[in-house]
Each structure stands twice: as C-alpha cells, then as structure tokens.
Amino acid sequence: MKTFSLSWKRVAFLPVIPATMSARKLKGAWWIDISLGGKRHRFKSPHDSKGAAQDYEALLRREFATHGTLDRLLRPQPEVRPITFAEFSERWMREYVAANNKPSEQRAKRYILAAHLLPVFGKRPLDTIKAAELESLKSTLLRERGVSAKTVNNILAVLQRCLAVAVEWEVLARAPRVKPLPATLPPVRFLDPSDIAALLAATPPGYWRTMVLTIFRAGLRIGELIALEWRDIDFAHRLITVRRSWVKGHLGTPKAHKIRYVPLATDLADAFRALPTSSARVFGLEMRDPYQFVRRRMLWFGRAAKISAPGWHLLRHTFATELTRNDVNLLVTRDLLGHSTVRMTERYAHVNKPELREAIMTLENAAPGRSWHQEGNRSGFTEAPHASIPHAPLHSPLNQRKTPRSGAMFHLAEKEGFEPEQPRNVSDRQLPPDASSGLS
User: Fold this and answer.
1) What is the CATH code for 85-168?
2) Over the range 34-73, which residues count as b (16 or more CB within 10 Å of their CB) and which as e?
3) pLDDT value at residue 305
4) d(CA 409, CA 194)
5) Within 13 Å and on the Cβ side, how many CA atoms surround 292?
6) Where is pLDDT greater, at 228 or 15?
7) Which fold does the domain 193-350 belong to in CATH?
8) What are the domain boundaries of the chain?
9) What does the alpha-carbon distance between residue 375 and residue 381 come to, in Å, rounded to a whole number?
10) 126, 83 in Cβ contact below 8 A?
11) 10 Å Cβ neighbour count for 24?
C-alpha cells in the first residue's frame, strides 16, 4: 500500500496553526476531523489505515501552514464532464482535417464518421473506447453489413487518426491499438491492343480522341486531364507538366500533392497541335460538372467498341500495364504515374514475369510417357504402363504475344481506309448526336 513518507518527527516541527485536526476511525474507515474558524470539516483518508490517515493529516497541516487556508480542499470542485467521441471528432474535422486534407478526403472522412463511427462511438467518452470494441466493430462490419476488408481498413484508419490526434493534443492519455485486416487488392483491369485500336476507332477525331490518346500516352488521371491547360504543355522541350487536378468542383494539386513531368510523345504532340486554343484549358472543359460529362461519353464510346465496363481510369491502368510489359523499371513507372510509393506501382508488375512463364513451359517440354508417381522406387521416375500423354499447348494469354514490344498499338488509327477487325466495326453504329462534333 502506497503511503505518504512523512515521519512523526517532521509532523512535530510543523508550525502551530489556529486549527485542530485529528485522525479517527469511523464505521471501518479513517477520517480527518478539522475544526477551522468554528466550523467542522471531515476528510476521508485516501488509504484505509491509521498510518496513512496520520500522514494525510500532516499534509493538511502543511497545506494550511503554506497557504493559510484550506480553501483549495474545502471548495467544491466543478465536475468535469469527459469529452465524447462525437464532440472531439467534430473538432478534429474542423481544426485538423480541414487544414491538412484535400476536399475529397474531407468528404470521405466525414462520410465514414457519419455512416460507421458516430452511430457506434458518438456518445462514448474518448477514454472508454477500448481495443476489444474495435474488434467487435470489425466483426459487425464484415458479417452483418457485408463491408469488404479494404473498406473496413479505411474506416479503422479514420478512427485511428482521430484518436492519435487526441493523444497529440493531450485530450486522451492513450489510444487503443488498431489492427487492420488482411486485404487483397482487386485485380487490375487493362485493355488488350485490339481493344485499344477499337476504342480509338470508336472515338470521334478531335477533342475526344486526343483525350483518350493523352491517357494512353501520358497516364493522366481524369481530374488531371480535365484541369490540363495549354501552359502545361511545353512543345519546345516536349514535356507535359501535371500540376493541378479537378475533383468534384475543386481545383487543386494532383493526388499526394506531387507535381510531375511526363515526356510528350510525338503522335500526342501532333494531336495537341490540331486542337483549337481558344480556351485556357486544353479540352475546354469548363462546365459545372465536367466529370459526369466525360464519363457518359466514355460509356458510349466503350459500348461502341464492345468493351465491357469502360472508364477513363481503365485507360490509365492500360498505360501502366503497357509500361511493365515493355520492361520499364518500376521506379520510372511510379514517377510517370505519380504514385507516392513503389508499392502502389507493383500492382502492374504481374503482367511481365517471364520466370513464371518459363516455369510452366518446363512442364510442356517434359518428355512424354513418364510417370510422376513413384511406386516403391525412390530413385526416380518409372515408365508409365499406359500410352503416352499427348502434348497439347496451353492456350493461355500469358503464353501468347499479340503484338511486338513496340508501342505501335497506340497510333491514332486515322490513316485512310483503316477498318477495325470484326465484330468491332462501329461505322454502322449510331453515336449520340453531339459525340461526333467534339465538345458541346
């Protein structure tokens, strides 16, 4: 038991004060009785023993000798109500998130708070949120609501950052540890060379085809494409500067706040020179909601080219995949894509692993008529008693190369007499009225 380290000798030398104190035991507990100014006060000893009560009495005497009063102890202390998660999260959004995150990130965090965290922890004091309850939240989101593991990790990341800031601001003594779930990223979709040619053929010349070619050749995000201005294109040095992005009505810096420089391909430079320069933006997308405008057009072009679930970001995936197919270093690919870490870029490395292809080819090249089971013979394989297994080639896309490693599939396909292969001919399909005349 922890007691105060004051001896009776130190108490004996305390100054004489106009107050009487005594330690006594009442109903099984030790109390300090004080008569001060004709009024009697009683304090309960913090530890239930005679020695602790006497030490507490000595402290009270010292308090009176130092300050001449016991008002600090006698004055009723106002009850401090603990701050709830809802109260602190609102302060966190107002003072931290608004200053450090982009508008799109602010909207995402506010949605996660409103939809998932506030209904569970909103009325709870911050210091009552424990690790066991976070595990319960993960189980509820996964099993009852059917939320994916990646989304659960996004929710936990918002909660973890909010509690971490509470610790930094000394509102919370210690935050519970948040353990993310193991999550697998979805496979990356990308277009084959034939799909690229079909999409370019289905896209009207001018603005639209140049927009498609810009992502195929430079890997811009759709927000960066919308915000691209003529001053960002340096024809003399053949360079595109990606310095801004348009996201849901807000014009800001690109993702991860990284300005990057992408070399300007020859065919893309020719396509840019053919466009009018009447607007500050290259593609003249200055309407209220350009994202929905270009998204609908891509759906039309993709359907005409017989591409399932078309989208502008699918073109960016294709750009990254073609780089890795042509043995471009992952660090270079990361810089061209504007990724913050090379780990994000590694998603595209699966398309160019020759060692995996070579491993499978060793099975195809194995001698026929050999059995892979050993019946009592540990020294090696035995001849199979049945007929030889026919040698059939694998018809896997990994074992077939559709085009050479050159970037020839990215040409504009504008030469006279170009006809895409069937059934990709879109000449007899009806496009929207305004799709063939550029932007309206």
Assistant:
1) 1.10.150.130
2) bebeeeebebebebeeebbbbbbbbebbbebeeeeebeee
3) 94
4) 8
5) 5
6) 228
7) hpI Integrase; Chain A (1.10.443)
8) 8-74, 85-168, 193-350
9) 9
10) yes
11) 12
Closest CA to 203 of 298, 111, 75, 267: 298
Both tokens of 294, joined, read: 């270009």
Tokens of 124: 């709870």
Which among 269, 276, 215, 214 has a CA at the least distance from the CA of 239? 269
Locus of tokens 């499978």: 360
Residues 6 or more apart in contact with residue 157 via CB below 8 angstroms: 178, 180
Q: What are the pLDDT digits (tens) for 204-236?
A: 999 999 999 999 999 999 999 999 999 999 999
User: Do the two domains 85-168 and 193-350 of this chain adopt the same fold?
Assistant: no
- Model pLDDT for residues 95-154, shown as the tens digit of each residue: 999 999 988 899 999 999 999 999 999 999 999 999 999 999 999 999 888 889 999 999
Q: What does the alpha-carbon distance between residue 167 and residue 175 come to, in Å, rounded to a whole number? A: 7
Q: At what angle do helices 207-218 and 312-325 cross, to 10 degrees?
A: 40
Closest CA to 410 of 245, 217, 187, 192: 217
Distance CA 313, CA 165 (A): 34
Tell the burial category of 109 from Cβ atoms under 10 Å away from its Cβ (0-12, 13-18, 19+). buried
CB 424 within 8 A of CB 201: yes
